[in-house]
Design a protein that fits this description.
Layout (H helix, E strand, L loop, with lengths): L5 H14 L14 E4 L10 E4 L1 H11 L2 H8 L7 E5 L6 E2 L5 E3 L1 H7 L1 H4 L9 H4 L4 H14 L4 E6 L3 H23 L12 H10 L5 H12 L20 E2 L6 E6 L4 H6 L4 H5 L4 E2 L8 E7 L7 E13 L2 E9 L2 E3 L6 E2 H14 L2 E11 L6 E10 L8 H13 L3 H8 L7
Parallel strand pairs: 1-5, 3-6
Antiparallel strand pairs: 1-2, 4-5, 7-12, 8-9, 8-10, 10-11, 11-12, 13-14, 15-16
Helix pairs in contact: 7-8, 7-9, 8-10, 13-14
Length: 420
């Protein structure tokens, strides 16, 4: 089978999006039950990855490995509560009638995943609230109120810890008021959904001025943040992952050098679709590879875009460090803006704006919440004016944002997790 990218699969996927399961046999024998919306390198539009019930079940089995693995190293986790921050986003339906959602949303909305033996501090109503800021505040409030029962703290992504910390930093006075009075006012500025308010009220069963005073005193102190190791056994730079061979079939494309040099090897059609791949059992310690996956939903030899390094072995199973996403240059939350996407936005800026861009660079600023992209431009007005009017600069920002990728725009406008 050829090695493929999303563009190779897009014609079949577009038919699925338009017509539904009637043509699912194009990819595999089983009906396509849902689409997972990607949050990786989106090339201007989020990818829709088809999934079957069989593939979804294998994903659920994979998720179920979490607790047994943790229990091997930390016994007694079921004796307390988990302050686990879980968020969902809006599910949509394709013209063909197939539901589309983020993987994390699909997992969270599967009832048996949330009704497992994990005792969460967050009521189900706060988890399923699609207003991210309301959900975050509510889950943080419930976790703080039950602090003496909290045994562990968890996030789907490391960036979630920083978002949570910044929410506490910004809203601790309001959180203290809620805990001190043991109630949520009907005109509460952060909790507006009646079902969420009712669920949180079941947690805040009484006033707790002592806890409110403690939180207030801590938050009034000068900031003295230190790193927290969420993995009890491994330092973050040394974390490695073991691929589960029953989940999918994994192959590896050897990274020969810098990404641009690697791309030079795929200019020819034959080399692009039939490169030499390495099996899971033949990867070499210390080498970097791009992951290629074949799954149970008709996705064959798909270049995921993750670059992994072989860190070691557990018995005979290779363990990998996650190194990077190919070509990603900017990321605040779940957005992944690559060089092509960024350059495309710059090109449109040049076409639509009455300025000449001499040079530019950028970086993601996460010192504020929400974080934002910072762009440095060296500009020259076409009329050789030394000063570029502020209005022109503002127009430049709007043009850039309009032509950045789908995931950036979604996180910027719908979720409000990226600032201007």
């Amino acid at each position: 089978m050829p090695v493929v990218t999303y563009e190779d699969l897009k014609p079949d996927i577009d038919l699925l999006i338009a017509k539904g399961n009637s043509i699912s046999s194009t990819l595999c024998k089983s009906p396509i039950s849902q689409f997972f919306r990607s949050t990786g390198t989106s090339s201007g539009m989020s990818k829709l990855i088809p999934s079957t019930e069989e593939q979804a079940e294998k994903s659920r089995q994979f998720c179920s490995l979490l607790i047994p693995v943790l229990n091997q190293h930390i016994p007694g986790l079921n004796k307390g509560k988990a302050m686990q921050f879980i968020f969902v986003s809006l599910c949509t339906e394709t013209p063909g009638g197939i539901i589309s959602s983020l993987v994390s949303t699909s997992v969270a909305k599967t009832s048996r995943n949330l009704s497992s033996n994990i005792n969460y501090t967050s009521p189900i109503e706060t988890i399923l609230c699609e207003d991210t800021h309301q959900s975050l505040y509510s889950q943080l409030l419930c976790g703080l109120y039950q602090n003496k029962q909290v045994l562990r703290l968890g996030f789907a992504f490391a960036s979630g810890f920083m978002v949570d910390a910044k929410c506490l930093h910004q809203h601790w006075t309001l959180l203290c008021d809620d805990i001190r009075h043991g109630t949520i006012a009907e005109d509460h500025p952060k909790i507006t959904d009646p079902s969420v308010r009712k669920a949180v009220m079941k947690i805040l069963v009484k006033t707790n001025p002592k806890l409110a005073d403690f939180i207030e005193n801590e938050c009034k102190r000068d900031s003295s943040w230190e790193g927290i190791n969420l993995d009890p056994l491994t330092k973050p730079p040394e974390v490695s992952y073991t691929l589960i061979p029953t989940l999918a079939y994994f192959e590896f494309l050897t990274i020969l050098g810098e990404d641009d040099n690697q791309n030079d090897n795929f200019n020819q059609e034959k080399k692009q679709h039939h490169p030499e791949l390495v099996d899971l059992v033949k990867v070499e310690l210390g080498r970097e590879y791009e992951l290629v996956v074949t799954n149970y939903a008709g996705i064959y030899r798909y270049r995921v875009g993750d670059v992994l390094r072989v860190a070691g072995f557990k018995n005979n199973a290779p363990q990998f460090n996650f190194m990077r996403r190919r070509n990603v240059v900017l990321s605040i939350d779940m957005d992944k803006t690559n060089e092509t996407e960024f350059q495309n936005a710059v090109d449109h800026l040049m076409i639509m704006s009455n300025v000449s861009l001499v040079e530019y660079t950028s970086f993601p600023d996460t010192s504020t919440f929400p974080g934002h992209y910072v762009l440095y431009w060296e500009l020259q007005g076409n009329n050789n004016n030394a000063v570029i009017p502020q209005k022109v600069l503002e127009e430049c920002c709007l043009v850039m944002e309009e032509f950045l990728g789908y995931e950036y725009r979604y996180m910027r406008t719908n979720k409000k997790l990226i600032g201007p």
